[in-house]
Amino acid sequence: MNEEKKTTRMFFVDNLRILLTILVLAHHTMITYGASGGWYFRDPHTDELTSIILTISVTFNQAFFMGLFFFISAFFVPGSYDRKGSSQFLKDRFIRLGIPILIYIVIVNPILVYILFVGNEISFAGFYLSYFQSWEGLGRFLGGNGPLWFIVVLLIFSVFYCLWRQISKEHFKKEINEKPLLNKQILFIIVIMAGLSFLVRIWIPQGWEIFNLQLGNFVQYIMMLILGTMAYRRDWLQIIPDSQGKLWLRIALVSFPIFVIIGILGGALEDVSVFQRGLTWQQLVYSTWDSLFCMGMSIGLITLFRKKFNDQGEFTKKVSGDMYTVYLIHAPVLISVSLLFAGILIFALLKFVIVFPIVVLLCILISHYILRKIPGAKRILG
User: What are the CB-based long-range contacts (under 8 Å, 24+) for 192-196?
Assistant: First the structure.
C-alpha cells in the first residue's frame, strides 16, 4: 500500500464534504417550503407547484447524499484508529461526536420544541420535566437528536468498528491489493443493497423511525459505512478510473428522470406510500433505483471532484474547517430565519431561493467567528 497517498491531503474529499453539508441545509430548507418529509417548521404559505418541484429535488437528494456522507466519514475511521489505538480513538470520538449529541438532546431540541409547539401553554421548566414523567416522554427526549441522528449513527459505528478491530487483529496485518472495483462487482453491490432494502421496507417503511432513526434507509447507510472502511485500505478514492466514474455518473443521472416518470405513472402523486413500503412493484422499483442512484452518484462525484476540484484556496480551506460546526448548528439557524420570513407573502419557491443562501452564510459566520473561537471548542469542532 502506498502510504504516501494516505498522508497526502485529499482536497477533493474536503470539497465534497462541503457540497454534502450544503446539500443537508438545502434538503431541510426544501422541506420547510413544501417538499415532503419531516422537519421542525414548515412555512404555512406554499403552493402545489413549489411542493412538486421541491419534493422531486428532495427525492434526488435523499437517494444518495447521506449514503455518500456515511461513506466519506467511514473512510477516515481506519486511519484514525491506526494512529490512536482503541482507547484514544474511542475517547476522541465520544468527545467530538458525543458532546454535540448531548448538548443537542439536552438543550437545543427541547428549546426548539417548546418555542415551536408549546409556547405559553406551560412553563419551560414544566415542559422540560414532563419528558421524565413517563417512558413515552423519555423516549421522545432521547430521540430528540434532530439532524444529529447522523452523528449518533457515526458514534455507534465507531464503537462497533473498535470492537471489530479488537476481534480481527490478524486481518489488519495482511497486505490488501489496491485494485478498483470492477463494474460487475459494483452491480453486484447494487443488487444486494436493493434486495435487502426491499425486504426491510416490506415491514419497515421509509419515514418510520425509532429514536429519530429511519430504519427503512439503513441498509444503504450500513453498506456505505462498510464500503468506506474498505475504501481506505484499498485506496479506492485514488484509483477509481475516471472513465468508470463518468460511466456511473451518467447511469445515475439518466436513471433519475426515468424514475420520475415511473413514479408519476405508478401513482406517486396520489399516494407516495406505495413506493415506500409493502410488497409492491413500486417499492421494488424505488429500492432498486435509490441503490443504483446512490452508488452511481457516489462513484461519479468522487472521480469528478478528484479530477476537477482537488485543490483549495485560502477561503475554501477556512470554509472546509467550518463544515462540521455548520452541520451541528444549522437547525436552529434555519428555523430562526424561516420564522422571520414566514409572514412574507411571496412565491414559496422564491422564498426558498432567498432563505437558503442566507442560512448557509449565517451558519458559516457563526461557526467561524463565534463558536470555533470559544476556548476549548477546537477539541470538539476542529
Answer: 192/223, 193/219, 193/220, 193/223, 193/291, 193/294, 193/295, 194/287, 194/288, 194/291, 194/292, 195/287, 196/223
In 10 A of CB 261, how many CB atoms?
10
Indicate left, alpha or beta for 46 from its phi (over 0: left) and psi (-120 to 50: alpha): beta
pLDDT at 252 over 70: yes
Classify burial at 356, counting beta carbons within 10 Å of its beta carbon; exposed 0-12, middle 13-18, buried 19 or more. buried
Q: How far apart are CA 19 and CA 65, in angstroms?
A: 9
Q: What is the pLDDT of residues 153-164, one digit of tens each?
A: 999 999 999 999
Quickly tell me which residue has 447507510 as its cell. 221
Going from the C-alpha of 341 to that of each of 41, 58, 90, the distances in angstroms are 12, 21, 42
Q: Which residue has the cell 460546526?
A: 325
Is 321 a residue whose pLDDT tops 70?
yes
The domain locations on the chain are: 1-57+312-382
Inter-residue contact 351 to 47 (CB < 8 Å)? no
Alpha-carbon distances of 295 from 220, 225, 269, rounded to whole Å: 10, 13, 26
Contact 156, 90 (CB under 8 A): no
328-373 tens-digit pLDDT: 999 999 999 999 999 998 999 999 999 999 999 999 999 999 999 9
How many CA atoms within 13 Å lie on the side-chain side of 205? 13
The Cα 52–Cα 20 span in angstroms is: 23
pLDDT in tens, 91-146: 999 999 999 999 999 999 999 999 999 987 899 999 999 999 999 999 999 999 99
Between CA 88 and CA 213 the distance in angstroms is: 27
Query: DSSP assignment of 145-164, as one string?
Result: -GGGHHHHHHHHHHHHHHHH
CA distance 297 to 186: 12
d(CA 332, CA 305): 30
For the CA atoms of 296, 150, 152, 236, what is the dihedral angle to 10 degrees?
30
Contact between residue 78 and residue 33 where contact means Cβ atoms under 8 Å apart: no
Closest by CA to 27, choosing from 373, 356, 382, 287, is 356
